[in-house]
Amino acid sequence: MKESTPRIKLYIACSLDGYIAREDGSIDWLTEYDNNPETDYGYSEFYASISTVLMGRKTYEQVLGFGDWPYAEKKTYVFTGQKEPLLREKNVEFVSGNVGEFTRQLKENTDKDIWLVGGSQLIRAFLEEDLVDDMIVFIVPIILGGGIPLFDRIGKEIKLKMTNTERYKSGLLRMEYNLKPT
């Protein structure tokens, strides 16, 4: 029997005006925060707490462009409505069925927390289905003026409970929210 139910966590960065990427999907504005010698913004601890990674097809294709697959030791599910992409990385499985049904079943059969990476369309689907338990959102001190929004037409009000905030010397602000009680 499981000790506790795994939680689905959105862990993501966005601009001050609420965008996770430029219109073309570029996240070049985040590169100055990569490999910070002072902190990894809690990423290592977060990454160790999860066993599964969930993302949409566009996000998957973008991550492939970064070079080595960063999630090789984690089970990754890529949600897509299109035919399977040509390149399949280690531990990657493509999912095209109902997001809610798949995720609820996954959660029942997983021991550790699950990371909802993105993108915007998948985040919307998860929020519409009440599948997100926690959010860790980093506000990057930049106004992009347009792009792919973090929250795109969710269509309902969602109340959040702030559980933690942290301000970094780099100007990043980490905000943690709980959507469902533990």
TrEMBL record:
<dbReference type="GO" id="GO:0009231">
    <property type="term" value="P:riboflavin biosynthetic process"/>
</dbReference>
<dbReference type="GO" id="GO:0004146">
    <property type="term" value="F:dihydrofolate reductase activity"/>
</dbReference>
<keyword id="KW-0560">Oxidoreductase</keyword>
<dbReference type="InterPro" id="IPR002734">
    <property type="entry name" value="RibDG_C"/>
</dbReference>
<dbReference type="GO" id="GO:0046654">
    <property type="term" value="P:tetrahydrofolate biosynthetic process"/>
</dbReference>
<dbReference type="InterPro" id="IPR024072">
    <property type="entry name" value="DHFR-like_dom_sf"/>
</dbReference>
<dbReference type="Pfam" id="PF01872">
    <property type="entry name" value="RibD_C"/>
</dbReference>
<feature type="domain" description="Bacterial bifunctional deaminase-reductase C-terminal">
    <location>
        <begin position="74"/>
        <end position="172"/>
    </location>
</feature>
<protein>
    <submittedName>
        <fullName>Dihydrofolate reductase</fullName>
        <ecNumber>1.5.1.3</ecNumber>
    </submittedName>
</protein>
<dbReference type="GO" id="GO:0008703">
    <property type="term" value="F:5-amino-6-(5-phosphoribosylamino)uracil reductase activity"/>
</dbReference>
<dbReference type="InterPro" id="IPR050765">
    <property type="entry name" value="Riboflavin_Biosynth_HTPR"/>
</dbReference>
<dbReference type="InterPro" id="IPR001796">
    <property type="entry name" value="DHFR_dom"/>
</dbReference>
